[in-house]
Each structure stands twice: as C-alpha cells, then as structure tokens.
Design a protein that fits this description.
The chain is globular, with a radius of gyration of 12 Å. By secondary structure, it is mainly α. It is about 45% helix and about 0% strand. The longest helix has 14 residues.
C-alpha cells in the first residue's frame, strides 16, 4: 500500500514504519499498531484492511 501524498507529505512511509515495528519486536519491546485515521471509502476497503491485518500478523502483532 502506498500512501497518497495529499494525506502524508511529511510522514515516514508505511514500509519504513513496519521495518521499525518489526525491529522493536525483535529486540523484545512491547509494540502495537493503531489504525487511525481510516478514511471512509479511501483506506477502509476490505482489501486494504485484509492487507493491513495480514501484514501485522506476519510481523508478529
């Protein structure tokens, strides 16, 4: 999933955030995810949510 620039011009990319999250888990830190905000009809599609949930499961969340 690629972020739309109009929503997050200065934010770290989701892929880099996932790398950091995986590293914190690997190093024994308690870590979690908050899905906010979900934009109606933009980021809350079934396909996007399934992708996110599977990705989190794959890295151990």
């Amino acid at each position: 999933m690629t972020p739309s620039p109009e929503f997050s011009n200065w934010a770290t990319s989701p892929s880099l955030r996932l790398v950091a999250l995986k590293e914190t888990l690997t190093n024994g830190f308690f870590s979690g995810v908050s899905l906010m905000p979900l934009f109606p009809h933009i980021s809350d599609t079934g396909e996007n949510l399934e992708f996110m949930f599977q990705t989190f499961k794959d890295i151990g969340i």
